Amino acid sequence: MYFNEDHNALRATVKRFVDKEINPYVDDWEQSNVPLHDLFKKMGDLGLLGITYDPKYGGQGLDYWFDLVFLEELGHCKADGVPMAIGVQTHMATPAIHEFGSEYLKETYLKPAVAGDMVTAIGVTEPEAGSDVASLLTRAVKDGDSYVINGSKRFITNGCQADYVTLLARTSDDPGYHSFGLFVVPTKTPGFVVNKKLDKMGMRCSDTAELFFDDMRIPAENLIGEEGEGFIIQMKQFQHERFYALPGAYVSARDMIDMTVEYIRQRKVFGKPLIAKQVLRHRLAEWVTQLECLKQLTYHIVRMKMEGLDATREITMGKLFAGDLVFNVAHGCLQMWGGMGYMNETLISRKFRDSRLLSIGGGANEVMLEVIAKLEGF
Ligand SMILES: Cc1cc2nc3c(=O)[nH]c(=O)nc-3n(C[C@H](O)[C@H](O)[C@H](O)COP(=O)(O)OP(=O)(O)OC[C@H]3O[C@@H](n4cnc5c(N)ncnc54)[C@H](O)[C@@H]3O)c2cc1C
């Protein structure tokens, strides 16, 4: 209904890329990490890292339906850590530069990210500040033509391999939301330390780092937008991050259902294939219904974005709904696989581990509920 032959061509390109350049390697990457420079360069060459971005900076200048197609196809990756790493590059660390960055920042940092020559990370979360972003302690102090950065960030995706971190830091002690700056922080700057690569239950192919900043001096021109507006800019950037998660959630969950149906068709229990059990078929039917609701909400969000409307409320609802739904599907499918589902050789066990993150990362469910309650005036 919404897709013409250009959308279909992009879908075919991304599908081919996932089938040839990602899925054959994910088992190895789960043991080490996705080689981001290599992967992103290939994606940059195909124009996949800046679908909606201005062609002046290497983007495709395409609309949000193309973005949706791109994200839906990434949902077929056989390890969710790969689309997460890609999503950081396209929907989490660069939208603010595209929207609010100076010409200098776009030329120097956005363009190479879109080309796949630089790997990016987004640095918001800290040991003492996760859900409560405004309580973060990392500081950026203006000193002549520079800012001097001190502090730390935790759980930073792509953090071990990033060429720069889009970093939220405090620029003043004044209470409220106008005391922050969002900066482009090159990781080659002296004082940048990857303190630790973190060991996780899922998303194992994605590198997640603890970062330290020790008297890092960066040029003042690396500030995105105005000083004092960093928090507001990051809240807007979060809308891209949360939207990114939706298409992948319903596509990945549908893949889990399809692989499970295939298994329970041939798995005989009490003399009959498991699929003969009505209770299982009804459970599958219920999930498919819920996934269709998520998909239709996502399409509604795309329509709103196409009209230039603020979709914060709908994106927040989608993120909340998707987090629980994708994990319920993973959990329920694994149950249908029985002991085989518990084996690492079975993809559903990885999907189960990977899918647990969505209701925590990018704002936990309770944070989504707070946002929705506020927007509804409750
Ligand atoms: C694998 C992984 C990758 C990540 N990647 C990045 C990244 O690239 N960049 C980045 O900046 N961050 C990243 N994060 C951090 C992520 O966004 C945070 O983990 C998340 O925002 C929650 O913060 P927290 O872990 O500090 O939990 P806390 O803030 O300590 O909260 C703990 C729990 O408390 C509950 N809670 C929170 N607020 C409320 C409330 N108001 N009412 C009731 N209950 C509440 C929630 O259930 C929450 O899960 C990543 C995290 C993980 C695990």
Write the layout of secondary structure elements.
Blueprint lengths: L4 H18 L3 H6 L4 H10 L18 H11 L6 H12 L2 H6 L2 H13 L4 E4 L15 E5 L2 E12 L6 E7 L9 E7 L5 E6 L10 E12 L3 E2 L5 H37 L1 E2 L2 E2 L4 H29 L5 H26 L9 H9 L9 H11 L3
Parallel strand pairs: 1-4
Antiparallel strand pairs: 2-3, 3-7, 4-5, 5-8, 6-7, 9-10
The chain binds flavin-adenine dinucleotide (FAD).
Structural features, described:
This protein is an alpha+beta fold. It has 3 domains: 5-115, Acyl-CoA dehydrogenase/oxidase, N-terminal domain (Butyryl-Coa Dehydrogenase, subunit A, domain 1), CATH 1.10.540.10; 120-227, Butyryl-CoA Dehydrogenase, subunit A, domain 2; 232-375, Up-down Bundle (Butyryl-CoA Dehydrogenase, subunit A, domain 3). It is 50% helix and 16% strand. It has 12 helices and 10 strands. The strands form 3 sheets. Strands 1-4-5-8 form a 4-stranded mixed beta sheet. Strands 2-3-7-6 form a 4-stranded antiparallel beta sheet, with helices on one face. A two-stranded antiparallel sheet has the order 9-10. A hairpin with a 2-residue loop joins β9 (268-269) and β10 (272-273). α5 runs antiparallel to α8 (230-266). The longest helix is centred in the middle third of the chain and has 37 residues, at 230-266. The protein is globular. The two termini are 37 Å apart. It binds flavin-adenine dinucleotide. The site of flavin-adenine dinucleotide (FAD) has 23 residues, from β1, β3 and α12.
